[in-house]
Amino acid sequence: MSAEETSRFVRLRVELVVEVQDEDEVTKAALRRLAQDPDLPEAERSHAEGAVTEDTAEALAYLVDPFDLLGEVPGVELQQASWSSERIDYDPDSPDWELDEDDGTDDEEDGMG
User: Do 78 and 66 touch, CB atoms closer than 8 A?
Assistant: First the structure.
């Protein structure tokens, strides 16, 4: 493909597994972020506060924002993003936790080859 035929759009896939060492701190940080969001309607804010208070995974999802991650990258404008979080059973020694095992791409497509 020539440069003119190549799409300007790139799908960036990132999967993270994090260990939450202090659930209260994560919840407090999410509540602070919600309180500082001037564009969040009050009814939605109330619902979000309940969600982050009840579930640390929800709190983390409010704190990790793809728009923030790419905001300082020159020459890039984020077009669309979706993300979620969930509690998982994690065993770093398990072969089930190999990175990129089921993404359906090879290293060259990932830009790693």
Answer: yes
Q: pTM for the complete prediction?
A: 0.68
Q: Which residue has the higher pLDDT, 35 or 113?
A: 35
- What are the residues whose beta carbons fall under 8 Å from the beta carbon of 9, sequence distance 6 or more? 79
Q: Which residue has the tokens 């790139």?
A: 10
What pLDDT does residue 29 have? 97
pLDDT, tens only, 14-48? 888 899 999 999 999 999 999 999 999 999 999 99
Task: Kindly report the three-state secondary structure assignment for every residue of the chain.
Answer: CCCCCCCCCCCCCCCCCCCCCCHHHHHHHHHHHHHCCCCCCHHHHHHHHHHHHHCHHHHHHHHCCHHHHHCCCCCCCCCCCCCCCCCCCCCCCCHHHCCCCCCCCCCCCCCCC
Q: What are phi and psi of 71, to 5 degrees?
A: -60, -30
Q: From CA 70, how far away is CA 34, in angstroms rounded?
A: 20
